[in-house]
Structure formats: C-alpha cells, structure tokens
What we know:
28 strands
Amino acid sequence: MTTVKEKTILIADDDPSSTLLAEAALADAGFRVLVANGGEEALRQFEAHRPDCLVLDVMMPDLSGFDVCRRVRARPDGRRVPILMLTNLSDHASISESYNVGASDFTQKDKHPRLLVERVRFLLRDRDLEDELVTSQARLEQAQRIARVGHWELGVDGTSLAVSPLVGELFGLTSGKLASYADFLARLAPEDAAETRAAFRACAEAGIEYSRDHRMEDCSGSAVVLHQQAQRLPRSGESGGPVILVTLQDITRLQRAEDTARTLMYTDVATRLPNRRYFAESIEVALSGPEGGEHTVVIAVRVQNLDRAVAAHGEGFGNALLASVAKRIVDAITIFAATRFVRDDAVIPTVARIAGDELGILLKGGPLVAQMATATASMLSVVSRPLVCLGIEYVPVASAGIAVAAHDGTDADSLISYAHIAANQSADVGGYSFYSEQLQTLSRRRLSLESDLRLAVERDQLDLVFQPRVMLAGHRLVSVEALLRWQHPELGSVSPAEFIPIAEQSALIGDIGRWVLARACEQLTRWRAAGLSGFGVAVNLSPRQLADKDLPRAVHAALVHARLPAQALELEITETCVVAAGEDARRRLDELRASGVQVALDDFGTGYSSLGQIRRLPVDCLKLDRSLIADLRLDRGAQGIVAAVFAMARTLGVRSCAEGVGDAETLRMLTDLGCDEVQGYYVCKPLDAAALATWIGRGGADSLLAAAAAATSEDSVPTTEPLTAPGTA
Ligand code: C2E
Ligand code: MG
Ligand code: MG
C-alpha cells in the first residue's frame, strides 16, 4: 500500500493565484503536487505521471474540467482515479454536470485550502478501501472457485437477485442466464425437483433452512453431485423483504472419494468379493426385514486345503480360486432356485469372503430357505467339479455349515460363527452339517485345546509310546510305531486323533512333528545302546509336514543327530495326504526313499485312491486300516478284499501290514491270507520306552505268534519268502 507521501495530486486550473494556494496546502500536507495550466496540459500530465488524484477547475479556456474528467474516465486506467471538481457552490448546474461526467466529488473553489486537503484525503482513503474490497472479492471468488462453491441470492419468489460466477459455471451457463430458481429446478430429476421446490417454499415462507445433495448432469452431460444449502436472511441495507441465500458446492470429487472408500470398506480387495463387514451388515438388514429371522439362513463354505494350494501355486491362485468358487455358488443356487420354480429376487444369494479360506452365503426368502439342505448339497456338488484357474487344473473340495436364524442366533456375528463351527465340523467329510449346541461345546473345547497345545511342547506334557509291529514269518520285531501322547493338566490324556488335526490346522504340527522325529530317533539309539537292536522306528507324518519342502532336511538332521542310518526310520503317511500333496511332495518322498528311509502308506482302505493310483505311490509298505481288519472274522467280503490287497502288495513288491489286530482268530486268518506284518492290541498295546524294553526282554510276541502259526493249516503257510523289512540295518 502506498503512503500519503508518495501520492501524487494533479491540479488543473488556469488561475495562477488559486493554483498557488492549493498547491501550497497540498504540498504542506505531504503530497507530491503537479500543476497544469489548462485542460489539455492536464491530460498530458495525466498520461505522463498517472497521478493518484485529480483536482480540476470546471472553467478552463482550452478544455473544461468536465471534458477533462470525461476523457480521463474513458481511459481504462482512469476509471477509478478520484476526481475532485472545483465549482462555485451556488452553481447547481455545474455540480450536477460534475456527477454526470463521472467526477468523484466537488468542492467550492477558493474556499479555505485546508478544506481541499481534507477532501483529497477523504477521496484517497475511499479509493484505498474500494481497492481492498475489490482485491478481497477477487480472492473470495478465487477461493470459491477452488472449493467449487458458489452463492446465489434469491427473492422469496425465486427471482435471482445476485449470483456468483461459479454458480453459472457449475451449469455451464453464464450467471446472467440463471434468471430464477426455476432455471435450477428445471435441471433436476422430477422427484428431486418437486422436493427441492417444496423445501424452497418452506424456507421462503417459514424460514426453514434446508440442505440437499443433487445428482445431476452438467452442461457437458457429465454426472455431477451438487450440495445445496439455503437459508432465509433479511435483505442487507435497503428496505425490502427477506432474501434466500443459496450456496451451491460441487462435491463430485468428494462423493467419488467417498464412494471409493465405501467400496474398499465393503470389499475383499484380493478377490473383489464383498467382505465380512458387508456380509454381516447384509444379514442384519435381512434380520430386521418383515420376515426377519424366519427366512434368513447363513451358510459358511470352507474351501479345504487352500493354504496348500497357495503354497503350491501362489497367493494369486488362491484368490482366483476363491472367486471362481464364489461364482459357482451364485450360479448353482440361482439355477437350483429356477429349477424349483422359486421366482423371487431374494434367491440371488449374497456371497462374501468371510475368512481366509471361507465364503459366506446369505439365503433369504421362504421357498429357498425351506430347501436349504438340498440347495447346499447341490451347491457343494457343483463347487467340487474340476476347474481350470489361471491355467491350473484343480479340484476344489469344500464343506459347508448351515445356521438358521430363528434357531441358532439372532444377530449376524453369532450366525456367521455358528455356520463357521458347523463347516469345520464337516471339514473331514467334505459335506455339510447344521449348527447345534453340541457343536458349539466341541468347538470351545477345540479352541482351548489349540491354545493349550502351544504350551504342551515347552511344558513337557507330550510323550511318545511305542507299538510293536511284528513280521508273521519268523516272528521278528520289525519296528515300533511312535505314537504321541498328551497328558493335559486338567483334561487328562487327550487322544492324538483329537489333537493332531488341531495341530495340523493351526500349523503347530511343524514344531510337534520335529519333536516327535527327534525323540523317536533318540529313543531308538538308546535302545540300541542298551543292546536292543534289529528293529526300526516308524513315525507318523501329517499332510502339512509332507507339504513342507524342508522335510528331507529335517529327517536327515534327526537321523544324524541320533547317529542312525536312514534304513532305521520309516515314515507313515496316509493315502489321502499323499494324493492331495501333489508332485512336489512325491518328489520329496522319492528323495527320502533313495536315501534309505522307508515309507509306509498308513490307514490304507479309508481313502478314495484307486488301486491304480497306489501303484504309482512311492511306498514300501501298505498298512491296512483297522476298520478293514475288524470286519475280517464276520465278513467274507472283507476277507476277499483283504486277500486281494495282500496279493497286489506282493505283486508290487510292497510289504503288507494289518493294523488293529485285536484277537487270536483275526491273527490266524491274517496268517492264512498271506499278510506280512501285524500290529494291534492283541500283539502288544502301545508301551512307553521302558515297558517296551521289558516286553522285548520277555521274548516279545514269540509265544503268541507261535501259537497262531500252530493253529494255521499246513497248506496256507505263505508260499513266498517275506520281503525285506526295515530296522535290520
Ligand atoms: P495310526 O498311525 O493309524 O496309529 C494306530 C492307532 O491305532 C493308534 O492310535 C493305536 O493306539 C491304535 N491301535 C493300535 N492297535 C489297535 C487295536 O488293536 N485296536 C484299537 N482299537 N486301536 C489300536 P492312537 O495312538 O490313538 O493314534 C491315533 C492316530 O493319531 C494315529 O493313527 C496317527 O494317525 C495319529 N498320530 C499319533 N501319533 C502321531 C504323531 O506323532 N504324528 C502324527 N502326525 N500323527 C500321529
Ligand atoms: Mg500310523
Ligand atoms: Mg493307521
């Protein structure tokens, strides 16, 4: 801002005496003063010096003050410069002419020069204020433009009184074209327009403020979102009725950001499926609907072995697989509904990702819910068909759990967790089950076992027992199978059949498996040192251990540590585990076998693998599951199957072993049928290390097997020599 000292005042007057007085007074007040003797010269000086204020005598011979004023005003740089006219006070015509030609003010000529100075000061201050106003208005407009806000002043009848340029810009119109609020309403969707009109009326008549969002098109046809806020105010300054001040803001970008945030909040980014939050909220909406709990069912679908699929083919594959399964579920249920003549929008199920390997399905509507069991079964059968995902052929296995709102829970979270519990329950069979109280108790026990199991290893609660496996021909002790025991401080002894699957699912099996391997090998070394030799040790492997690429290294570390040859160790794996584990796991087994470690196929007869598949499996021994052996005495069909398996094993050069031999009769029949080895309570129950040493010291199974052999008819003695068994090394 300029100071008084820097301001330049141009005085134009042809009368030197009055000029002299004025000049002296102004210079005295600190102004720089220029003097022109006439109108023409005044214009020249203006051109040359751009003074801050002009003082013009009305009467000058060459060019009158009016003419000078008019010509200065005609210039772009002269429009806002203060111009003070010197007139005679009684000359009314001159005063009015002064205003006509654009002068800022007038004063009486030759009056006290101090008065002139005050007038000039006043005009300059006024001009400064005006400048500031113009600047701040420009700034405000700029800020509004950046914030995309505009304001609009309307009469209560909706006529436009004042409008900021941005309001016009928002609609691609010059603001002048927005003659009334009706122009704005005409651009809204009919329903929005009607409601907004009513809101405006209420604001005009009763002063009720309103704010609304409008989705509309701008002049280029792009979708925009405008936020409107309106209030009634008294008209400023002059008289007249109140005005309605409307502010309009373009919130398209904000809205888009909000939409994106909302999408992210409700989407599982990896699969692009709705997420658990979305699922839970959808359930709450269904529950609060008119039919509510009566017609709401939540199904959890667990895709089994997803972690192994991810380990083998990567995260992307796992996500794509889940997305494909979700699509199959939607298709299957929609088709199911269509073929059952359920014609209702509600049949399109909501399918969301509710956990790493779990999808949730929300079924609504009476007709479909009534058939939920059949719908689930049919959906599962579609899901488990082979598919090609990211170029990889895969057969998904899924199990489902069903929770029915009216029975099982009244809020979304309970329904989801009940369905999850039921899905876990049916995980082993690949089918579906309904949630029940009993399941919840089981699931609680499962949870507490899982957390306790973490501490079991370090707190020394785990132990191994050993069950002998004996060769029928020659009665030799072939090996002992290491079996885990857990002495839980409160629950007592917990069966491995219960805690091994928990360890497997929670990945605790890694630590536990390594512990078993090391402990079993160390024990064998101890026995050998005590003079008990000629037999090996067998260790059970879980699917996760088999899938671990470090398995061969861990096995060799245990052997080296115990100073045992590889031939002393046998690994037991189940057929489902080896079939599911894929090529990499098979290569690991081949590698282990090549180093001398033996591999036995455990629980044979409980899985689904065909005999043809068994032929390709890298194993040295087939262990027939005790469920097959238990039926032997009573079921002739079972005898046929078992005999065929023994024959096949011989053809393949694989040893056969019967598990769960529980009585003398079964033992005799197995000898008849040409079984190589036996294991079971009748031979010997699992024993701790010391008890096993005593058992061996007392002759082991000798007397028992000798009796069985004696009871066996002469012609049924095995016709071929027994195959080589482990432990002899
Ligand atoms: P498995 O490997 O098939 O072990 C044989 C199971 O049958 C053992 O049960 C054994 O005590 C039992 N058994 C043996 N003879 C008879 C009999 O004549 N009658 C009856 N009713 N049962 C008999 P256990 O010790 O409860 O182990 C159950 C399963 O837990 C094992 O089946 C195995 O799959 C698993 N398991 C045990 N220890 C381990 C381990 O260290 N690691 C892994 N991954 N799994 C283990
Ligand atoms: Mg076993
Ligand atoms: Mg077994």
